[in-house]
Amino acid sequence: MNNQITDEQENVILDAVDRFLERDVKPYAHALEQADEYPHEIVEKMKALGLFGATIAAEYGGLGLGARTYAQIVERVSTVWMSVSGIFNSHLIMAAAVQRFGTEEQKQRFLPRFATGELRGGIALTEPDAGTDLQGIRTHAVKKGDRYVINGAKTWISNSIQGQVLAVLVKTEKRDELRHKGMSLLLTEKGKGFSVTRKLEKIGYRGIDTGELLFEDHEVPAENLIGGIEGRGLNQILGGLELGRINVAARGVGIARASLNDAVAYAQIRKTFGVPICEHQAIQIKLADMATSVEAAKLLVRSAAEKYDAGERCDMEAGMAKLFASEAALTNSLECMRIHGAYGYSREFNVERYYRDAPLLAIGEGTNELQRQIIARALIARNPA
Ligand SMILES: Cc1cc2nc3c(=O)[nH]c(=O)nc-3n(C[C@H](O)[C@H](O)[C@H](O)COP(=O)(O)OP(=O)(O)OC[C@H]3O[C@@H](n4cnc5c(N)ncnc54)[C@H](O)[C@@H]3O)c2cc1C
What we know:
The chain is an alpha+beta fold. Helix content is 54%, strand content 15%. The protein has helices at 7-35, 40-49, 67-101, 104-116, 233-269, 281-309, 315-339, 351-363, 368-382, and strands at 121-124, 140-144, 147-158, 165-171, 183-189, 194-199, 210-221, 271-272, 275-276. Helix 1 (7-35) crosses helix 3, helix 5 runs antiparallel to helix 6 (281-309) and helix 5 (233-269) runs antiparallel to helix 8 (351-363). Flavin-adenine dinucleotide (FAD) is lined by residues 90, 122-126, 131-133, 156-158, 202, 205, 210, 360, 363-364, 367, 369-370.
């Protein structure tokens, strides 16, 4: 990933993102979110801005941004409407798997079309009976001549209804003793035997499509096996999850910051007992804690992103950033609601949306329970007694 851009170049990109958010997202987010409507026009603007190629290398038509700049984009987008970030985030995790582990032929064939947004998609790992325990998946692919035949079901897959392609985690080895080794990642374009059985209804993260999928003798060309060698799928997907966790953490900073911004503004307008509520010490303590969490979360994200950009191992750092920032989003969104009193409970304002969106961050890209295990294991491995 090319992260050799100057601060000035970074500012130009972030200013362009801010203008897009102000002009093309903010005025429409509330209505689209309440209606759970896919933001087609916003997606067209995102294509023009190059967001679908944000982290794809320039030689394949992307912007080639490093994780540090990318995280700031995700944070800004999530401050306005988190769902919009989901449309390019899991798409870019799929792209990262191709870029890091794909063959040159796969990179040439897919990455330029991913970068323009002509082909969009995400990653399909989760199944009805397997989420955290990915080794328990049952979807399998059997090689027949020059094709793989996929059978199985996936659920909770973002971008699976509006997108055209997914990186699907499958078993290519059925023997139980090889559970973790027998997994592969296949790029699967929609076609015969691949159906969306249901659009899932969610309390938050609305507007973006999340689907349940069925594969019934769905055929994929053998050259779509990422990296061309069976059995590497789990490592390929776990490698991509570091960037995924940095990006969920950045969403957390966005929600935590939006909650803080709204709370700071409202606390100066709303009066009780003759003074703005920001003059009550109880409210000041909330605002101070919220602001401190935002800054701490932002620094953790930056530190993990810089390690990622330097090519260093950052499982622990990305896990810490994801854990802390998502919990900050949860806490700040609730505090923002409390500060708004009854208005926080109204569907007319954004406050209740932050409160509905935040919990996803504690679940997606590895639950926070799992993050704690990742952090503790890395801590012990890095500090042998
Ligand atoms: C809106 C949304 C979008 C999503 N998008 C995608 C997507 O695009 N692609 C995709 O593949 N998936 C997606 N997911 C699925 C998501 O990644 C999973 O929900 C997540 O990994 C958790 O898996 P699970 O729901 O099966 O929970 P489970 O694995 O069943 O876990 C249930 C509970 O047990 C805890 N737990 C599990 N194992 C342990 C352990 N060893 N120790 C302690 N606690 C444990 C968990 O932390 C959790 O609290 C999405 C989910 C949502 C809600």
